[in-house]
Each structure stands twice: as structure tokens, then as C-alpha cells.
Amino acid sequence: xxxQKHHYLKLKGATYxxxxxxxxxxxxxxxxxxxxxxxxxxxxxxxxxxxLMLNQEFEDHWxxxxxxxxxxxxxxxxxxxxPMAADEPSRASDAPTVQQALETYLSLKxxxxxxxxxxGAQRSIGYFLEVVPNKTIDQLRRQDANALREFLKQRGLARxxxxxxxxxVRAVINFALQEAGLPSTLIFSNxxxxxxxxxxxxxxPSEQELRRLMSLCKSHDDQMRWALALMCDxxxxxxxxxxxxxxDVRLDADIPHLIIAPRPWRRLKTASSERSVPLVGNAIWASxxxxxxxxxxxxxxxxxxDQDTLSNSASAAMNKWIKQNVSHEIVVHSLRHAxxxxxxxxxxxxxxxxxxxxxxxxxxxxxxxxxxxxSTIAKWMQTIV
Length: 385
Fold this sequence. Notes:
Strand content: 5-15%
Number of strands: 8
Largest sheet: 3 strands, antiparallel
């Protein structure tokens, strides 16, 4: 097919796959010589975007493997012809290496988390191993953290992206130190990453734009548009909406509502995210349509595969449709910002707003008692319909 060699796409039936041969120098007798990943989309445009991201991840991983091969060859030469390199780890240490720390971290912490958690940790540690030998974690020094910072800057990463990579590396190393009974390290803390820029304020849709969006959702009347309508009048996060099960929808209750709780295919962002959300306005229409159309247990089966919720691919498709039909400024998460603004503008108490949206609540007093009743929350939500 056209451009297959460049983008590594293959069409099976109506679904695109990413497929590529492993570079020959990296072949392993126990592993396949070709990788193939289902992209779960019939759209070539969406598949191209996913394939480009996957390709970069594989390139990063293969670069790490090439570096390790060079290090192994260099170590062999040093053993044969001279003293060990100054930065080679001491064999006397019982602490795990950086790579072993990553394996420990993922084996114990990745259960129930999405694929982005695993790939994020792997990518950050991969960057670290590009500039630091795979030595034991008790031998890491501040200059190793500084070397990572300079490496990420040279790759052109923004300050926030560099900070996220440092957060991942720090989490992996400190978790492994704790598991090994060793003191935690501060070498990845307070590393100077450059001056903070002015954060870009997220665009909040106007009332007219929200009305147009709802009108288009009702005219298209399908899973994607039901999910968008549901988020508009409930403030749900995208993953919370897409991961709903039919058991989470209580349409026949005195106050129709959703139950937002952890599911094997979708974890929640924070403890405060677990809540009950009344259904009002367009959210009732969207829930009814999705509930009746779903033949399985998931409210939006198009966006759930096995034990994973396909939030990233759904977000890309939704954002594209919104930009083409409503506004280039609006993205899916803008709806959550607009929802909070709507509650603010009718005088809803802040603690009620936090409960409805699953935001972290301020103050120890908010943890006392059973919290706001569903009828109280519904009363405030009805005022913004």
C-alpha cells in the first residue's frame, strides 16, 4: 500500500496495524524479528499519527539496546587490556542496577494502570541510560541527574516534559531503593530545569459554542457524540466517561445518576474521583442512548479493549471533529473547564463543585461525614442546564 515503508502501516480487513522488522544487529534467537501492533482504527489518518508515535518509541528502545551492546564490548576490551573504566559500577554493591530498578518498579506498580504508565517509565529510564552507565542505584550522583537534564534539553524537550521525565526517574529509583532497604536519594530533586514560562491558559468554550456542539452531537447520534454530550453536562474526565459500565448507570433511580468507581479497564486519577454524579440535561439523553444501544456491558464498547480504555485514540478523534465543526480552540478537556465555569457562575459552593467534578477537596473537614447528598448536588446541577 502507499507509504507503507515510511509509516510501517498494514491494513488487515478494516483495521490498521503498525508493523516493522527489528534491525538485524539487534535480533535475538528467542524473540521475533518483526513487531506488529494493532492500532484499533479503520482511519488511515489516526493510524498514521499512532504509527509515528510508536515508531519513535521503538527507535528510542533500539537505540538503548545498541548503546548497551557498545558498552558490553567496551567492558570486554577494558578487562582484556587494562583497568576498568572509572565510572563502571563496583561489583561489591548489592543494590540493583538502574535497569533492575525499572523492572522492579513495573512488576510491582504497573498492575491496574494503563499502558502509558509503563511506556512513560520505560522511556524516561531509557533516556537516563543514554547518558549514564547501567550502574547500581546507590552509586548514582548529582552529575548523573545534571547529565540527564542536558541530554533532554539537546533533544528539544520543553521544560515541563523534562520535569515529567525527572519525576518518572525519581519515582523508579526511590521505589527500588526503598524495596532494597536503602535510604532514598535527593539527587533528582530540585534540579534546575530553567526558568518557568507563562502557562498557556486553556480556552474555555462559550455558551454559543457549547450549544452548537450539543446540536451537532444530537444530529450525529453515535457513541462519540454521546460521550461528548455526557461530559458537557457532568464534567466527567474523558477516561471516566469512556470507561463506564452499564452497571454504573442508574437511570431508573429517583435521581438518575452515574457511579464513578475504579474498574479493571479504567483506574481513577485520584481518590476524590470516586463519586456519584447526577444526570441532568443532555447527559440524560446521552446516557439513555448509549445504554440502549450497548449490547455488552460497556456503555461505550467502541473505546474499551480487553483491560484498557482507549482514551488517547478517542481524544484524537474527538478533538479533530470538534476543531472541524465547532472551533479550532476547543479540545475535549475544555468541556471540563467550561462545566466548572458554569457551576461557578450560578453561585455553586466550591465544595459542591469539587465533589461533582472529582477534584481534590481542601481541608480536613471535607473528609468528615457522608458528604453532600445526591439531591443537593442535583439541585445545583439543574441550575446550569
